[in-house]
């Protein structure tokens, strides 16, 4: 991990902690049809969740890991819950970055990867 990414991650984690300590603030939206979660004004849709679950399952199979059977408690705790948690965290980070007016372009990412 480069210094840039570590610094950005540290800044965003600190902002999350500060935001949580202050009660979060800001407007919130309610669930719409097809949403699985709402974080601020960002809606996480069932389609997004399904896509990420598919990627997680494909990744597990490629690594020759056993995936619990769909519909079981193990499937929920080992597949669904971690994916939803990651999507919510990403939405929180995006909200904080927007609030702090932090933007990262594709060129910034490429430069960081090249470094």
Could you characterize the architecture of this molecule?
This protein is mostly helical and 115 residues long. The chain is 63% helix and 8% strand. The longest helix is centred in the last third of the chain and has 27 residues. The protein is flat and about 40 Å long. 2% of the residues are buried. About 7% of the residues have low confidence.
Taken as a percent bin, the fraction of beta residues is: 5-15%
How does the overall form come out from the CA principal axes? flat
Class from secondary-structure proportions: mainly alpha
Strand order of the largest sheet: 1-2
- Enumerate how many helices there are, as a single number: 4
Q: What are its keywords?
A:
4 helices, 115 residues, 2 strands, mainly alpha, 8% strand
Short description:
By secondary structure, the chain is mainly alpha-helical. It has helices at 3-21, 46-62, 73-99, 106-114, and strands at residues 35-39, 42-45.
Describe how the helices and strands are arranged.
Layout lengths: L2 H19 L13 E5 L2 E4 H17 L10 H27 L6 H9 L1
Antiparallel strand pairs: 1-2
Helix pairs in contact: 1-3, 2-3
